[in-house]
Amino acid sequence: MWHYTRWATMSSVFLVIAIAFWAGLRYGRSPVLHGFTMQPPKPALDFTLTSHTGAPVSLHDFRGKLVLLYFGYTFCPGICPTTLANVAQALHQLGPQAQQVQLLMISVDPERDTPERLAAYVPAFHRSFIGLTGSPAEIATVAPKFGIFYEKEDNAPATGYLVNHSSTMLVIDQQGIMRFIIPFNTSVPDIMTDIAAWLRQGASS
Questions:
Q1: Are 98 and 63 in contact (CB under 8 A)?
Q2: What's the pTM?
Q3: Cα(20)–Cα(7) distance, rounded to whole angstroms?
Q4: Helices 188-204 and 79-94, interaxial angle, to 10°?
Q5: Residues 161-194: tens digit of each pLDDT
Q6: Domains of the chain
Q7: Residue of 33, 67, 81, 150 with fewest CB within 10 Å of its CB?
Q8: Are 39 and 74 in contact (CB under 8 A)?
Q9: Under 8 Å CB-to-CB from 175, ≥6 apart: which residues?
Q10: DSSP letters for 53-87
Q11: Do residues 11 and 151 lie in contact, with contact meaning Cβ atoms separated by under 8 Å?
Q12: 55, 123, 185, 198 from 131: Cα distances, Å
């Protein structure tokens, strides 16, 4: 577990190097966030992967919504289920506004995370959540576009290998621009207030 956490921390630091607090938006003043604002904001590169329903899904399909992009896997022992559960609670607290938000979890373990397995796992946290997978080559192409690190654990337990991976969640605005990053262990109230602040910002732009 120490090795897993070490890699998650290192990858988080890698992302944080490229960002700064309280960056200005194109319109108006940036909301005060508990996460880290991208500096400068930049368009999210599009991709197409296979959803847990078996249908192809592209990032641009969710234009007009606030997208929470997370890279994880269904065999993850702690970080992934904690993150998904916290986001689900935050969306519950948002009430009707949650319909303006879409969480996408891209699997970093495509060898085991079939659409069927993702379908049994990801929507169990929140019915709106979508799990995405693809071939190992497809995931290896998409992840670096978002600064995501992942690799199989060398000393795998007898029950199956672990995957070390970045633990941050990227937030992409309604126009497809990467705006801020939510670190692992951000509290449910802080996730909720950050999302609500950005929804208000988007409504006033």
A1: no
A2: 0.83
A3: 22
A4: 50
A5: 899 999 999 999 999 999 999 999 999 999 999 9
A6: 2-204 (3.40.30.10)
A7: 81
A8: no
A9: 63
A10: TS-EEEGGGGTTSEEEEEEE-TT-SSHHHHHHHHH
A11: no
A12: 11, 8, 21, 23
